[in-house]
Specification:
The chain has one domain (about 5-195): Hypothetical protein af1432, CATH 1.10.3210. The chain is about 70% helix and about 0% strand. It has helices at about 5-15, 20-35, 40-50, 60-70, 75-80, 85-95, 100-110, 120-130, 140-150, 160-175, 185-195. The longest helix is centred in the last third of the chain and has 19 residues, at about 160-175. The chain is globular and about 45 Å long. The structure holds 2'-deoxyguanosine-5'-diphosphate (DGI) and fe (iii) ion (2 copies). One fe (iii) ion binds near residues 52, 53, 56, 86 and 111.
Amino acid sequence: MDKLELIKYDLYAQDLRRIKHIEGVAESAIEIKNRHFPFITDETALCAAYMHDFTKEYSKEQHFAIFERYGIELDDCEARTEKLWHAKSAYALAKYVYALDDEICTAVLYHTTGRAAMQPLEKVIYLADYIEKTRTFVDCVDVRDTYAMLCEKRDKNALDSAILYSLDLTITDLLESRRMIHKNTFEARNHLLKEGIE
Ligand code: DGI
Ligand code: FE
Ligand code: FE
């Protein structure tokens, strides 16, 4: 079995509620990388897509067992924010259990917050996660439509602009619901602005 098959085998064995979302991310990731980064292989994009929410339904105990076992440290914001745990635990499994390439591991690690100077596959997975077709939340539909419009216009910054827009919407949502905002989320946004993305 190759690594992708093994990941899918283990993922489907979990009987996840969110499998349709993960399949949607896989489909979007292929489309996005073919458009912007055709040098990324299908296998690489799919490994990252199938791994990204691998631990999403794990319990607190399961997440912390992984953090302890693989020496994963949480900063203060991460420790207090349950929504951020699954990216770090899935990263640990990607790196230490499935021994995936670094580019795949970091795409999994930063899929929720983004970070400054995101690498090609990190951008692909970040946006695919936000706009995949099963998402019906108004912000997701908005970013999906904006990205499609920018691609249609052949805007050379379509991918970065769509990511910037999704970061704006995420930060606005976090502010409105008085949740903590991780520094990577801010740094991802600041970096794109510094690069002149609109
Ligand atoms: O796992 P998914 O639902 O597919 O998507 P995701 O991993 O992008 O998680 C989205 C959730 O993460 C959404 O509720 C917003 C939250 N989130 C993203 N960045 C931050 C954050 N939550 C906090 N508190 N702080 C952040 O910086
Ligand atoms: Fe996620
Ligand atoms: Fe996801």
